[in-house]
Amino acid sequence: MAGDYIVKDIALAEFGRKELDIAETEMPGLMSLRKEYGDSKPLKGARIVGSLHMTIQTAVLIETLVELGADVRWASCNVFSTQDHAAAVIAAADIPVFAIKGQSLEEHWDYLDRSFMFPEGPNLILDDGGDATLYVLLGARAEAGEDIIPVPQSEEEEVIKAQIAKRMKLSPGWFTKTRDAILGVSEETTTGVHRLYELQKNGQLPFPAINVNDSVTKSKFDNKYGCKESLVDGIRRATDTMLAGKVAVVCGYGDVGKGSAASLAGAGARVKITEADPICALQASMDGFEVVLLEEALDADVFITTTGNKDIIRIEHMREMKDMAIVGNIGHFDNEIQVAALKNHKWTNIKEQVDMIEMPSGSRIILLSEGRLLNLGNATGHPSFVMSASFTNQVLAQIELWTKGDDYNNDVYILPKHLDEKVAALHLERVGAKLTKLTPEQAAYIGVTPEGPYKPEHYRY
Ligand code: NAI
């Protein structure tokens, strides 16, 4: 249906298309899937709801899914991450999309609802952070008369409840019917995957789920090397601050923390780490970073949360920070920093997604993207090349769920290693890497076959 979209300005489509053309040259994994499956159209009949940052890279993903035969409707999974020219180019291609950079929370949940509105209903979800999955499951619980509170993002609770109530009134029974028609979900990120395993543990997962995040070619690349490029990009575009010589604290040293610390260190900052896990704390130490308690490092210049956990930087921390300390989050949700506790302080908006907030003492902090992920709020997220690896996993996961869904139980799965290796292999040529071929003797000696997989399941990379 023409005009089935909400974007900032459809006239941005021309600019979007030019950037998309460049991105395609950096996304060899997706482009080779188009070549491999463009004729056979394995996703024919699939009606995919996408809830993932509406960026230029995502536009290449969307057009790949469509080229493989799918019908797609899209919303962003974050209020600040949309690139309006990327949304415009998708809308101009007659693919329904509902995303505007800076949309309100009410609009966010309304747009997510709209992304489900296929005339025949959706049958697959492609999720980032789990909001699309959450929406259907909470709604179905509400229809069954069950309590749907607390939801994970507590500050959004009222908005989510209101949106669910609206849909229940408009289309009674819709959530249950939709949940029962969904054949599976593929989930992009650590936080969303965490929710899926919780559902599985509690016997509440109503369809199979593929954990894309834990493909090696996703979390060990996107979360790490992606943040290595996009964290400092976000801080610079927001503040133009000189990072060399400054002290930066990175909270968390998982995959995103490792990339974030490398990003800041690469810019010349002196980086300190906080960690709760002794293994990651030891890794940080051996990588040359001082591992500290946040309370002991409040005289730093920059603070970045990367934990996927809540209440990491609290109000009492922000009150102790030096004047003009920069505070930002690169984890999925905004509850890593206690932004709600700042609401009754004096806010001065500097520009979009950059605010100066005055503490009772008179000292100020610069808060990026209101505590939402700053690499997508203040910059344009990860570069295309690394997103190609992530999204190639996403497309393979969708093909798997659509063509072999019956082989799966209602559990969380990781793509098999041969597909993980395939994703990596598709990206070698672009970086000029040449792969050594194992002789049959060598392969036998290390217990693999010359065609792979090259590592046992327990190998950790
Ligand atoms: P991870 O689980 O590998 O790392 C998180 C680390 O934080 C763990 O090592 C954990 O021990 C540590 N941690 C937990 N609570 C802590 C506390 N109170 N203090 C200090 N450390 C603590 O997770 P990963 O993959 O690094 O993802 C982190 C977050 O980033 C997730 O929300 C994920 O969804 C998100 N993400 C964001 C991306 C972006 O582009 N902005 C890209 C990929 C993931």
Strand order of the largest sheet: 9-8-7-10-11-14-13-12
Q: In whole angstroms, how far apart are the ends?
A: 46 Å
**By helix and strand content, what is the structural category?**
alpha/beta
Count of domains: 2
Q: How much of the sequence is in beta strands?
A: 5-15%
CATH class category of the largest domain? Alpha Beta
Helix content: 40-55%
- Can you count the helices? 17
What's the name of the CATH homologous superfamily of the largest domain?
Answer: Adenosylhomocysteinase-like
- Uncertain runs are none
Apparent shape = globular
Major β-sheet annotation? 8 strands, mixed
User: Count the strands?
Assistant: 15
Ligand names: 1,4-dihydronicotinamide adenine dinucleotide
CATH topological fold name of the largest domain: Rossmann fold
CATH architecture of the largest domain: 3-Layer(aba) Sandwich
Average predicted local confidence, pLDDT: 97
What oligomeric state best describes the polypeptide chains here?
A: single chain
Task: Give the C-alpha Rg.
Answer: 22 Å
Note down, in words, how this protein is organized.
Helix 1 packs across helix 3 (56-67). The protein folds into two domains: 10-217 and 382-420, Adenosylhomocysteinase-like (Rossmann fold), CATH 3.40.50.1480; 224-378, NAD(P)-binding Rossmann-like Domain (Rossmann fold, 3-Layer(aba) Sandwich). It has helices at residues 13-25, 28-37, 56-67, 84-92, 105-115, 131-143, 157-170, 174-181, 190-201, 216-239, 255-266, 278-286, 315-320, 374-377, 384-404, 417-426, 440-445, and strands at residues 47-51, 71-75, 97-98, 124-127, 185-187, 209-211, 247-251, 270-274, 290-291, 302-305, 325-329, 346-351, 354-358, 364-368, 412-413. With 461 residues, the chain is α/β, with parallel strands linked by helices. The mean pLDDT is 97. The protein has an eight-stranded mixed sheet with strand order 9-8-7-10-11-14-13-12, with helices on one face. Strands 3-2-1-4-5-6-15 form a seven-stranded parallel sheet, sandwiched between helices. It contains 17 helices and 15 strands. It is globular, with a radius of gyration of 22 Å. Helix 11 (255-266) links the parallel strand 7 (247-251) and strand 8. 1,4-dihydronicotinamide adenine dinucleotide (NAI) is lined by residues 189-191, 219, 222-223, 226-227, 251-257, 274-277, 280, 306-309, 312, 330-332, 373, 375, 382. Belongs to the adenosylhomocysteinase family. Substrate binds at residues 55, 128, 188, 218, 222. Its cofactor is NAD(+). Residues 223-381 form the S-adenosyl-L-homocysteine hydrolase NAD binding domain. NAD(+) binds at residues 189-191, 223, 252-259, 275, 309, 330-332, 375, 382.
